[in-house]
Amino acid sequence: MEAKSNYIFFAPEAVFPIIKDENGKALNNKPATGFPVAGTLQGEGKMAGIPVLFIRTAGCNLRCMWSLPNGEVSLCDTPYASFNTPGEKRVAVETVKNTILQNIGMLNHLVISGGEPFIQPGSLVELISMLKTEKNLHISIETNGTLFDQKLVEAVDFFSISPKLKNSVPTKEKLDKTKTVIPFKPDQAEKTRRNIRVIQSIIDHCNATKEKDFQLKFVVQNHSEIEEIENDFLNCLNGWKPDDVVLMPLGSTPDELLQTRMVAVEAAIERGWRYSPRLQINYFGGKAGV
Length: 290
Ligand code: SF4
Prior knowledge:
The chain is of the alpha/beta class and 290 residues long. It has helices spanning 79-82, 93-103, 121-134, 150-155, 172-178, 186-192, 196-208, 223-233, 254-271, 279-284, and strands spanning 7-16, 40-41, 51-57, 65-67, 73-75, 89-92, 109-113, 138-143, 158-161, 213-220, 245-249, 274-275. The protein has a single domain (4-217), classed as Alpha-Beta Barrel (TIM Barrel), CATH 3.20.20. The chain has 10 helices and 12 strands. The longest helix has 18 residues, at 254-271. The site of iron/sulfur cluster (SF4) has 12 residues, from loops.
């Protein structure tokens, strides 16, 4: 049987945005950015605006669903990588590495996003090790902060930890309203979504390791969530600075963001935290592959 760690399970975008295959042959279609070059901008957090290449892994241990102020329910902004992964691809780590190197050009940053990348740590450690041997790329990972793997944590340079608040839990009411089915009971998501031990371990690792960094990125829409961030997360953690806390408005469309952004702006100014835009929604409309 083939070792699972030799493959990465990807959402349909896999490595993106790209213009060449793993052998350097030009692809027929332009990437979703519309540009004739590989790469995009990191749209969120401390690294917003930096040119990067992404990979998007498939699968997640949570199923986030938020109630919006207008009563609508907003799903995770990459449901095809978390709720259902019908276009999931299994790609050999060597092929992934070659695809990245064929497209990296002048970029110096690779972002590993999901889904939740920490559900397949072995193959990602293998990929990072290969990449670091051939080209010393800066590696970021985007995680919900509920799973830990020592080797993967040691391999990554920047951690974008996005802990999930109570309003993200896929309650029966939200599931019924959106006619969505998930593979576990809502109370399991409630128990899983907050893991202080995991978040603290990543913070401690960054603080003990030169040139590593992290951010605690919270998606918010109202003032009670700011209190929840302080009471349920920040007051339980140490080793962070106000500058490490990033507030990002809830929403995956410009209209949804309009409903929520001023809460985040006000709270960030009041507490000396950061406000994060979602540049990918401004510039590319939040479509997949950008
Ligand atoms: S943790 Fe992230 S990827 Fe997983 S369902 Fe929630 S928002 Fe989506």
